[in-house]
Amino acid sequence: FPASSHEARMLENFVHLVAATNIVIAYSTSDAKADRYMMHYQRYRETLLMLKSDFKSKPNDHYAMHNGDMLKRWGPLPELAEFGGEQINGQLGDILTNQRDCKLVGFS
Q1: Under DSSP, is residue 64 helix (H, G, I), strand (E, B) or coil?
Q2: What is the pTM (predicted TM-score) of this model?
Q3: Which of 21, 43, 105, 108 is most exposed, with minimal Cβ within 10 Å?
Q4: Could you tell me which residues come within 8 angstroms of residue 72 by beta carbon, excluding any fewer than 6 positions away?
Q5: Is 40 exposed, middle or buried (0-12, 13-18, 19+ CB in 10 A)?
């Protein structure tokens, strides 16, 4: 398909989203990768608006714009998210349910 076609713009949009996602979910990072993430995510947002001019941003779209700074300050983001999630999984796994689907004691 021609480079100026709607399909080509959709493909470009998707490629930028995938590239940004691959950077933000990686277990290693650098300032250069954080900058590359921001470039891809900004291009994803720009091309999305070209494809769908009435697109309304969601809170996650705003939060994702902070990922570049977070990568630079805190390092790989999956490690931050996994610790809290694993802690909660451990706490939930300790609840005795006797293998029944019922209301948990103290919750209604």
Answers
A1: helix
A2: 0.73
A3: 108
A4: 31, 34
A5: buried
